[in-house]
Amino acid sequence: MTRASHITRFLADAGWGDAARLPLAGDASARSYERLKGTKGTAILMNADPATGEQTQPFLTVADHLSAHGFSAPRILATDPALGLILMEDLGDDLLTQVCARRPGDEAALYAETARMLAALHAVPVPGWAKPYGPAQMGPMIDLFFAHHTDMPARDVTDAVTQALEATDIAPQVLILRDFHAENLLWLPDRDGAARLGLLDFQDALAGHPAYDLASLIQDARRDVSRDAANAAVFAFCDATGHDAARIEAAIATQGAQRNLRILGIFARLAGAGRTKYTPLLPRVEAHLAACLAHPAASGIARALAANGYTAR
């Protein structure tokens, strides 16, 4: 039986065999998505073919944790882990990036609300399945950057990144969703509190620094976040968590530097594989990296990069 036939049977068994299937934009992974429209309304099909190395269990595990604590992960309607198929609740089209484009005057308030949702998530104990993503793990994760700057000795910069992360570490670790940005967040105004932010693309969740997802939110590779919105997010986060703003801003610089170095490597790899839609995003990521390196907390990273001939633009 072909994969298409397996999918058809899966949908029929789930009661969605009569639904129209409309492709949706995917992400940087091998997963694909479709919106189903039928007599039951709408739903989303995730197609994560195990033959491509994709797995659905991490998504299901994180979704269950988030839903159990009142956060708006999509409700799971049906799943076949062996086939890599998930049928889930359709949370709609109001991505945060689109809501901000329609209502730019609300951007700061929406980002503050998102930061408060993060604070609520961090108040929940980290589940045992979440693997650590601290300085020791994060330093080597920038290797993709060096793969596209082969004349640069990786060890010097990796050591500088690890040391900067250690110097700005804050205990305890929290659950980080990692791809936490406006195109993975949906505005759900009819829900209450933290549930007003719909969550997508969280299968890579780990246990990490409280500032990691905040850095991901305000240093968005896909859209320009206004200074007012970024400041509102940091203020709301610190107000809700009690974290010192200066310590959080220093951590945003070091966490952001690591993250942006890694993204530069990922986007360069994708471009090399012919997926050039990420190439126009590189200047924004480089600008985020430059802003991080300008902070005193990331000065060691800046020196190591400069010593090896790289200056963020």
Write a concise synopsis of the structure shown:
This protein is of the alpha+beta class. The protein has 2 domains: 3-89, Phosphorylase Kinase, domain 1 (2-Layer Sandwich), CATH 3.30.200.20; 96-307, Aminoglycoside 3'-phosphotransferase, Chain: A, domain 2 (Alpha-Beta Complex). It has helices at residues 3-13, 57-68, 96-102, 107-122, 135-138, 143-147, 154-167, 212-218, 227-241, 245-272, 282-293, 299-307; strands at residues 20-24, 32-38, 41-47, 76-80, 85-89, 174-176, 185-187, 197-199, 206-208.
How would you explain this protein's 3D organization?
The protein is an alpha+beta fold and 313 residues long. It folds into 2 domains: 3-89, Phosphorylase Kinase, domain 1; 96-307, Aminoglycoside phosphotransferase (APH), C-terminal lobe (Aminoglycoside 3'-phosphotransferase, Chain: A, domain 2, Alpha-Beta Complex). 45% of the residues lie in helices and 13% in strands. The chain has helices at residues 3-13, 57-68, 96-102, 107-122, 135-138, 143-147, 154-167, 212-218, 227-241, 245-272, 282-293, 299-307; strands spanning 20-24, 32-38, 41-47, 76-80, 85-89, 174-176, 185-187, 197-199, 206-208. It has a 5-stranded antiparallel sheet with strand order 1-2-3-5-4, with helices on one face. The N and C termini lie far apart (51 Å).
